[in-house]
Amino acid sequence: MTSPATLDTLRDERFARREQAYRQLMARLSARLDEALTGGSEKARKLHKSRGQMLPRERVQALLDPGSPFFEIGQLAGADLYEGVPPGATMITGVGRVCGRWCMLLVNDATVKGGTMFGMTTKRHTRAQLFAWHHRLPCITMVQSGGGFLPDLANIFPDEGQAGSIMYNQVKMSAEGIAQIALVHGPSTAGGAYIPALCDEVVIIRKQGAMFLGSPQLVFAATGEVIDIEPLGGAEMHSRLSGVTDHMADDDEHALAITRRIVEHLGEPPRLRWTRAEPEPPLHDPQELAGLAAVGAVEGADCRDILARLVDGGRFQEFKQLHGETLVCGFARIEGFEVGIVAGHGLLTAQAGAKGAHFVQLCGQRDIPLLFLVDSPGFADSSQPGQANVGRHGAKLLNAVANADVPKFTVITGRAHGAAYHALGGRAFKPNALLMWPGARASASPDAPDDEAGALNWARQLWCDAIVEPERTRAVLAQLLDVAGRLPSQPAAYGAFRM
């Protein structure tokens, strides 16, 4: 590869402008992330604690192994879509280690609208389930939910990807031996009762947890009968009479300890299928990526300069360096994991499409995971000199990406527009995870306004899994590679072909 620029070389006007724009953007974005981490109002959190309950994020930290990373999926989901609902759509979903095993955590946040489900809540829940299903991760659901938010019922009840899919996914994963575990922390109504009832093992907390299809208030409205929570669906009733729950805990801490013991007895954890080399720091400081990342109209730096601050030792074995120069391909390691990198470097030409298809197929043959670093305004126009075959070769790239049965991770670092978005691992091409840098833009057209194409809008709509700061990208990818590397390899579905 060509020599990457050093920090002294890069400290020009463009670097300073990008760094300043990035810092300003991160200040605004950090405020939204803080809202998501806080959850409900101070009044709601105090009421929650007054009942002797841990806050939802306290439960997450107490369940995870000490020091475990937690990759949160959909942290900004639903931001600004519902009045009085902070980013996150009334729940927390993410991957962390429990007793040394990667698990998916799905946690209702009862401090926000009583943990009721909105349309975006069901979308976030099902997205997390599909990630867990793909990676065969045990699902641990912490339930305390008032069920569906009735005014948003059209976005909760009838369609695929909504509440019914949550239940379908549970039973299908269970049938495949992917453990489904629930903790019932508080009153859980309607869908909040079905979800734990469909799990393999259920822990419920005495005098706090409850499961019923209709609350005591609904029973009174329908029949005039006054009934307390406990006989209707409390821990004693479900543990002694109905048998729906399997373990009864004294409080949150006890319930979490029981859950850890359940995870300890899930059998042998899957092993990593790749040999991981000793991790090395990048050639240059990843903190410098703040001055290399694209922000709005300020274009990002050369992808090779980004790679020098992302891959181990800055070593990048470039493939076809002199051909199809608007797509940079090559092999490297990230925290010891070997990856095949496909990086956008301008308009995708016919030559770039052919080169990319060849490289992606090689990675499929060799069982090397793919990392797409996307910064491309689209495909070249077929009327341009030498681009008459751009459609044909672009189709080959789409074919190769769709059929590459290796783990695929997409990080939109700059622009992702038109068919280039799809060809470089867009959501429809089913990457294991799709991430965006804070200043990234993605849309059908480069002319889309920032409030549509910007990373925040993509995160609120759950079109991407997370916005990741450039300097944290290595650590996040290392976790995702470790998770994906515990699946069995798949044979390549095609041989490499010469164009």
From TrEMBL:
InterPro entries: AcCoA_carboxyl_beta (IPR034733), ClpP/crotonase-like_dom_sf (IPR029045), COA_CT_C (IPR011763), COA_CT_N (IPR011762), MCCB/AccD1-like (IPR045190)
Top-level taxon in the UniProt lineage: Bacteria
A GO BP entry: L-leucine catabolic process
A molecular function (GO) term: methylcrotonoyl-CoA carboxylase activity
Record-annotated CoA carboxyltransferase N-terminal domain positions: 22-278
Gene3D superfamilies tied to this protein: 2-enoyl-CoA Hydratase, Chain A, domain 1
All copies of domain CoA carboxyltransferase C-terminal, residue ranges: 290-499
Cellular component annotations (GO), alphabetically ordered: methylcrotonoyl-CoA carboxylase complex
Protein name listed in UniProt: Methylcrotonoyl-CoA carboxylase
